[in-house]
Amino acid sequence: MESLGQIDIGSTAFMLFSTALVMIMTPGLALFYGGLVGRKNVLAIMIQSFFSMAWTTFLWWAIGYSLVFSGGAGKVIGNLDQIFLIGIHPADLLGNGNNIPVFCFIAYQMMFAIITPALITGAFANRIRFNAYIIFLTLWLVFVYFPIAHNVWGGGLFSTWGVLDFAGGTAVHTSSGFAALASVYYVGKRKVQDKGPHSIPLVAIGTALLWFGWYGFNAGSELKIDAVTSVAFINTDVAASVAAVTWLLIEWFSQRKPKFVGLLTGAVAGLVAITPAAGYVNVTGSVFIGIIASFVCYLAVSWKNKRGLDDALDVWGVHGVGGFFGCILTGVFATKIWNPSGADGLLLGNVNFFMVETLSAVITAVYSFLFTLGTLWLINKVVKVKVSAEEEEIGLDMALHGEEAYLS
Predict the structure, then answer these.
(1) Which of 49, 69, 366, 391 could in theory staple to 399 by disulfide, Cβ–Cβ 3.0 to 4.6 A?
(2) pLDDT of 211-269, one tens digit each?
(3) Which residue from 187, 190, 217 is spatially nearest to 323, judged by alpha carbons?
(4) If DSSP states are collapsed to H, E and C, what string results for 208-230?
(5) Closest by alpha carbon to 117, among 172, 197, 162?
(6) What is the pLDDT of residue 5?
(7) d(CA 230, CA 403)
(8) What is the DSSP string of 268-296?
(9) Within 13 Å and on the Cβ side, how many CA atoms surround 327?
(10) Are 307 and 114 in contact (CB under 8 A)?
(11) Which residues lie closer than 8 Å to 301 by C-beta, 6 or more apart?
């Protein structure tokens, strides 16, 4: 580690701000999900995101950071040498051209760990018990998120293959999205269907916070201020904007009316898909990624609806499919002209990079799906996972938490 005297003050300030931006995404997600469910289930879905903020923070301090970033070079998981952050001094800098305090990096990465399992909750909205969710959250972080994050960012197996994931296409979105799909298969359909989003303005506020926070999510992943930081920032905005308009136009054409929720959903799909590519592609690449993301995510949601799968808030269709294709498209559009530390993609003749990007996404999706399915089955042997029909009828806010979001 390097001495405190060499700290990059500008990059440190930027990274602390980026950390705060990523933090606000989890409350933003709670608002986004809260607006999409019915009035009787608002608090039940929101508490799951806020609980992840608290409990994941503890797990990250205790074992998470160590399992992701300590040891385990070329392996699927790190070691426990830095549990409880032992051996890390406030004066330690990250180094390797990123002279920010290690504790700043720890806090920044913690925010990624917080939001990832919270994303899954939208899939099983209105159907899962809170105590079962706590057990699931813990096991999923330890056995899915921590290993995959290590593989991608902690010097693990994927990184030895040359896999690049700028801000979480595999570790965050593919892993959570395919876990969401598994949870839908396990918990089945809701017995009491919501009539639709109970508050679209709440969804809009949540989307605004997600979009705002995503600049810290993507641009902050450069871990310093340089030219690539600006590239990641503008790519994030362009992909989200193009995807939002594309989704709006698709629905306008197919349903004869422009839908506000469709515009918001498209924006999130674009944000998800550009995440792994943000610092590796040029702006034209981000435009294509935004357009493709809207089409594939829209088709995934339509397929899910035709199959009768009750992914309540389209977590698989947006985050799973968007993250999966974002990884693949990184392998297509990446260019070292815009980021010398990156790689050239398929369009520039690098077939191997395209293949390892695709393979990492496939492995992540399959592993997360199978682990989630098995874990929910196992948890159900200890505590009941699904709520009863009576509790669904009452609404989970009162049935599980004894509180109401709206008193009139």
Answers:
(1) 391
(2) 999 999 999 999 999 999 999 999 999 999 999 999 999 999 999 999 999 999 999 99
(3) 217
(4) HHHHHHHHHHHHHHHCCCCHHHH
(5) 172
(6) 59
(7) 44
(8) HHHHHHHTTTTTTS-HHHHHHHHHHHHHH
(9) 30
(10) no
(11) 314, 317, 318
End-to-end CA distance of the chain: 58
- How many angstroms separate the Cα of 403 from the Cα of each of 43, 122, 345? 8, 20, 52
Q: Tell me the pTM.
A: 0.96
Burial (Cβ within 10 Å: 0-12, 13-18, ≥19) of residue 243: buried
The residues near 388 (Cβ < 8 Å, ≥ 6 apart) are none
* Residue 98, φ and ψ in degrees, nearest 5: -120, 80
> Do 171 and 112 form a contact (C-beta atoms < 8 A)?
yes
Instruction: Indicate the angle between helix axes 102-120 and 9-36, nearest 10 degrees.
Output: 10
- Alpha carbon distance 329, 280 (integer Å): 11
Task: Kindly list the structural domains of the chain, giving each domain's residue range(s) and its CATH number in brackets, ordered by start.
Answer: 4-401 (1.10.3430.10)
Nearest to 241 by CA among 172, 301, 177, 293: 293
Closest CA to 149 of 180, 115, 175, 122: 175
> Quick one: how many helices (H) and strands (E) in the chain?
17, 2
Cα 26 to Cα 147: distance, rounded to the nearest angstrom: 22
pLDDT tens readout for residues 14-41: 999 999 999 999 999 999 999 999 999 9
DSSP, residue by residue, 52-104? HHHHHHHHIIIIIHHHHHSS-TTSSS--STTGGGTT--TT-EEETTEEEEHHH
Distance of CA 294 to the CA centre of its chain: 17
Q: What's at 212, amino acid-wise?
A: F
pLDDT score of 186: 97
Taking a C-beta distance cutoff of 8 angstroms, is the pair 197, 36 a contact?
A: yes
Q: Which residues does the chain have with pLDDT short of 70?
A: 1-5, 408
b/e map of 133-167 (b: 16 or more CB within 10 Å)? Answer: bbbbbebbbebbbbbbbbbbbbbbbbbebebbbbb
